[in-house]
Amino acid sequence: MSALPSDPALLARVETAIASAGGALPFADYMQLVLNEPGLGYYHRRETPIGPRGDFTTAPELGALFATALARAVGALQDEFELPAQVLELGAGSGALAADLLAACRRFGRPQAAYAILEPSAALAADQRECLSEEAAVGWLNQLPEVFRGVVLANEVLDALPVDCFVVREAGLRQRAVTGTASEGFRWVEIPAPPTLARRVAGIEEALGRKLPPGYASEWSPWLGPFVRSVAARLEHGAILFADYGYERRDYYHPERSQGTLVCHSRHRAHDDPFHAPGAEDISAWVDFDAVAEAALAAGLTVHTFATQTQFLMQHGLLEALAAAQQDSTSTAAHLALVREAERLLLPGEMGTRFKVLILARGRSAAA
Ligand SMILES: C[S@@+](CC[C@H](N)C(=O)[O-])C[C@H]1O[C@@H](n2cnc3c(N)ncnc32)[C@H](O)[C@@H]1O
Q1: Which of 33, 36, 56, 157 is the best mutation target for the ligand 1 pocket, counting ligand atoms within 8 Å of the beta carbon and taking the most?
Q2: What is the per-residue pLDDT across 62-105, written as a single tens digit (0 to 9) for each?
Q3: CATH code at 105?
Q4: How close are the terminal C-alpha atoms of the chain, in Å?
Q5: What is the distance between the alpha carbons of residues 243 and 154, in angstroms, rounded to a whole number?
Q6: Residue minimizing CA distance to atom 12 of ligand 1
Q7: Residue range 260-273: mean pLDDT, rounded
């Protein structure tokens, strides 16, 4: 499946971490290592993970339509909350969203004064610098700013946050952890669920109003709440827009979704074996948007919008953006490519309903 081998140094790091954890490493720690270990993890490789030459394609990589609609949304939020023309993007990938959004903002007569990017991967930050070399407004941050006023964007960042895996057994809740060695390979092992995980799953069952049945496997992210709270805490006035694949809690832990949502991507093929090529393939999990909203509400934000990607993009002029782009295209092939791009963004079988947009806000809107 993978076109790339795992880095032996990363495999050795995982083996050491398993040994330090007593032979069973919580999956979230494994996921953090293989995705984000500086210099070694998946997002830190020199080979680009995103786009046609990578392992998966995100909405901004399909073309400029997504960013054009997002530019409309950013403008609307800046008007509604009387915000300065500044954006903070978390996890900017190749830089395509920033480039197309800034160009669209200029076309709409509302150039952005500042566009900050927080990108933990040095390799991706280098790609972004190349992609955005002409954009004077763009700057890179090493950490979240102390205080921010404006619009924060994060497309497909939450799904990359590490998750813990669990399975319900007749005898009680078990954590699905990682064991094995670099030479023999890594594999799942079940261990008693630690108290934090047991409390979280009990909380999920309470919210659902039913017990998860024996055999039910899923995941929960110990990183999600702290991540959302840390971003929310820095937002003095403005909005945070998360776009990602995910569900409300009742659908996330739906009886039919009994094997969880963990998914790996390699060269545009999805599979479910996170040990196939550690650090050389993407691992992600769908997002529990109720967990995102709860963390934001606890940090004093309000829910401004929760919509499917289709609803959100239609509301922010996706079809007008499509028509305008087609007017500038001269070949039938270019017209059809734009239609295909819009279909991938909007159709239910594609990104349209699997992806959601959650906007969280702090501060009074001008209309209030
Ligand atoms: C799936 S890629 C999405 C990239 C881009 N937003 C797009 O839509 O093409 C995930 C991105 O999130 C970044 N990322 C991962 N963990 C992060 C964190 N804790 N804070 C900010 N960015 C993070 C990765 O380095 C990468 O740029």
Answers
A1: 157
A2: 999 999 999 999 999 999 999 999 999 999 999 999 999 999 99
A3: 3.40.50.12710
A4: 53
A5: 6
A6: 91
A7: 95
In a domain, 119, yes or no: yes
Within a domain: 76: yes
Q: Torsions phi, psi of 306, nearest 5?
A: -135, 115
Q: State how many domains the chain has.
A: 1
Residue 345 in any domain: the answer is yes
Across the chain, mean pLDDT equals 95
The residues lining ligand 1, judged by C-beta closer than 6 Å to any ligand atom, are 43, 50, 58, 60-61, 90-93, 97, 118-121, 124, 155-157, 160, 227
| Domain hosting residue 86, numbered range | 59-155+305-359
Ligand 1 centre and the CA of 153: distance in Å? 11
For ligand 1, atom 8: residue with the closest CA? 155
Each residue's pLDDT tens digit, 11-30: 999 999 999 999 999 999 99
Quick one: what percent of the chain has pLDDT higher than 90?
93
Residue 124 lies in a domain: yes
